[in-house]
Design a protein that fits this description.
Elements lengths: L18 H23 L4 H28 L4 H30 L1 H10 L4 H10 L6 H13 L1 H14 L1 E4 L2 E4 H6 L6 H17 L1 H21 L5 H8 L4 H13 L1 H15 L22 H15 L1 H12 L3 E2 L11 E5 L4 E5 L6 H20 L4 H4 L3 H21 L3 H36 L6 H16 L12 H4 L13 H19 L6 H10 L6 H6 L8 H26 L1
Parallel strand pairs: 3-5
Antiparallel strand pairs: 1-2, 4-5
Helix pairs in contact: 1-2, 1-3, 2-3, 3-5, 3-6, 7-10, 12-25, 13-19, 13-25, 14-15, 14-16, 14-18, 16-18, 18-19, 18-22, 19-20, 19-22, 19-25, 22-25
Length: about 575
């Protein structure tokens, strides 16, 4: 780690003003222009187009990821914001090239089949691209849409991000950003949590007009474009992008709905542990038990490295390398956005992990989760761009799986008193991924329906959000203390490129846990991690159904999803037992 525990981006470029950044930017720009011209002339074979699309995609992803990383750690960095906008400009030509490439793949069936026979890894991806051609506007319209997105919807998304990272209020005599206030949701003092929650709501209320106009614009744009592209609905397009069908989605959603009573039992158990009659929204992340004590960064590092290594020695060394070589931006600070993510940089074949570590056990599991994504990146890093791009649904598999193996390792060594806190953290996270994600799914589905009839006011968004929270959390939460502004909090709503940026997390949670359950039943001649890595390696090449089938899993069968849910249920029951023993 660096002395100030910030990630090191210098292996990519020294800065956005460097000759290296300018050289790659110009290279990408020139390659796009020449590629576009050659594609329009029809002078390139399919093989040549694939080679050049792989090359330019890696360049653009590197440039875009690098500048996005800079902005996310400092939203007021004008040079980085300008560079990001400049890079975004390249995507206009990329969109045209992608449109031309898609049309070529669709209209040259014999050449596509001949290429696929010699390069079978490309077979599904090329057939998927040919199918996408049915949902593509004419080249000029796709180019215009890309340009308008850059100056419209994408700007609204950045507005939400900028306000969410810098808006502040006075709290107990100190100025605190909304991110710092939200971090107090893990404070052991309920009065602190309540006051932080009220201050946070005040900030969202102050900026609700900006958020409402942003969300109206983004969802309105999505509806317009999806209609033009001949999608029946945002859900249909989302499923296609996630490489699943609606039967799989329905099996997942029905499993979430069927297990809501179990999660409400957990919420009531947590209320008893906290000694309150009912949980308020600001109690959801409240610590319980001894594991609420803070962890140092070194302790967090040791936990992740040790448990990764217990599953797969190579994964342990990978995590150690990430911590020791400044791949992680660790702590929150003014101007830095909230949340956590992993991102991959093709130029150096390395990942970077964005975190806001607060010393809690949840912060430890965030490292486990995001480094799971990074491991997934590592597994597919040798593949070309077109075969490395896996959907959100499968993207969460490695992160959830990694998070669970760390949890299992920690809980096995814990005393009963420590277990109650560690298990509660696990179930708390599962509750968010299953219950809150279902709430977000309901919310976004309702917003799309309402947006067809016109723009919504902030009060409309708040009312719909409260209704969705009541439907999912039910009597597990005190209705007087819900969170009407979660639509302003979650940046995932503000993406035009991928609507319903929610259910993939629940998919990943239950798929990862279900995969773990299967691993415990199988006794083969080789370590399970070899089969696991082989599955991850296919995530960019096949639809989710076929990837799962390599592990003997049928994603259309609700009973598989219940296997993952049963693991969560086991820990809910254990938590209830531990809580009862403590009460005696």
């Amino acid at each position: 780690m660096t002395k100030d525990n910030r990630w090191d981006l210098s292996p990519v470029y020294p800065s956005v003003d460097s000759a290296e950044f300018s050289s790659d930017f110009n290279k990408a720009s020139d390659l796009l222009k020449s590629l576009r011209g050659a594609m329009e002339e029809g002078s390139l074979s399919l093989s040549e187009q694939i080679e050049k699309m792989n090359c330019v995609t890696d360049l653009l992803v590197t440039l875009s990821t690098y500048t996005s990383c800079l902005v996310s750690v400092n939203t007021t960095d004008k040079s980085a914001v300008n560079a990001l906008n400049k890079v975004d400009g390249l995507f206009m030509d990329y969109t045209v090239c992608n449109t031309l490439f898609t049309s070529y793949v669709a209209s040259h069936k014999e050449e596509r089949e001949a290429f696929s026979s010699k390069n079978p890894d490309y077979s599904y991806v090329l057939s998927e691209i040919a199918e996408d051609a049915k949902h593509q506007m004419p080249k000029e319209m796709e180019e215009l849409a890309s340009d308008l997105m850059r100056s419209g919807s994408d700007s609204y998304s950045r507005l939400q991000e900028a306000i969410s990272s810098s808006a502040s209020a006075t709290f107990c005599g100190e100025k605190k950003t909304v991110i710092e206030l939200r971090a107090l949701a893990t404070n052991a003092d309920r009065e602190v949590r309540r006051k932080a929650y009220e201050a946070e709501l005040g900030i969202w209320k102050e900026h609700e007009i900006a958020f409402a106009y942003s969300l109206n614009s983004i969802k309105g744009t999505s509806l317009s474009l999806e209609k033009r592209r001949a999608w029946k609905s945002p859900i249909e397009r989302s499923c296609a992008g996630a490489r699943i069908n609606e039967k799989i989605l329905n099996a997942l959603i029905s499993t979430l709905e069927g297990n809501l009573p179990m999660f409400r039992r957990y919420l009531k158990t947590k209320a008893k542990l906290l000694g309150v009659p009912a949980l308020a929204f600001y109690d959801l992340f409240a610590p319980v038990g001894k594991a609420s004590s803070t962890y140092t960064l070194e302790e967090a590092r040791s936990i992740v490295v040790e448990n990764y290594g217990a599953f797969n020695p190579e994964m342990g060394e990978f995590a150690r390398h990430a911590f020791d070589n400044s791949w992680i931006d660790v702590y929150p600070r003014p101007g830095k956005t909230g949340g956590a993510y992993d991102t991959y940089l093709p130029k150096i074949k390395e990942s970077r992990v964005f975190a806001n570590f607060d010393g809690t056990y949840d912060g430890v599991t965030t490292f486990a989760h995001e480094l799971g994504h990074a491991w997934h990146d590592r597994v597919v890093s040798s593949k070309p761009a077109l075969l490395r791009d896996y959907p959100m649904t499968l993207a969460e598999t490695a992160s959830i799986f990694s998070e669970f193996i760390v949890f299992k390792g920690v809980v096995e060594k814990a005393s009963d008193e420590q277990k109650i806190a560690i298990i509660e953290q696990f179930v708390q996270s599962a509750c968010q991924v299953c219950v809150d994600i279902l709430c977000r799914f309901y919310f976004e589905r309702e917003i799309f329906e309402k947006r067809k009839d016109g723009e919504l006011m902030p009060s409309d968004f708040c009312s719909i959000m409260i209704d969705c929270q009541k439907k999912t959390y039910g009597d597990g939460l005190d209705e007087k203390y819900l969170h009407p502004y979660m639509w302003a909090v979650k940046g995932h709503y503000y993406s035009t490129g991928f609507s319903f940026y929610n259910y993939p997390y629940a998919f990943g949670q239950l798929f990862g846990l279900g995969l773990y359950a299967r691993s415990q039943k199988e006794k083969g001649d080789r370590p399970f991690y070899e089969k696991y890595n082989a599955l991850l390696s296919l995530t960019g090449e096949l639809p989710a159904k076929d990837v799962a089938a390599t592990a003997g899993i049928n994603l259309e069968d609700p009973s598989f999803w219940q296997e993952g849910m049963d693991i969560i249920s086991t820990y809910v029951k254990e938590l209830e037992t531990l809580a009862e023993s403590m009460a005696k």
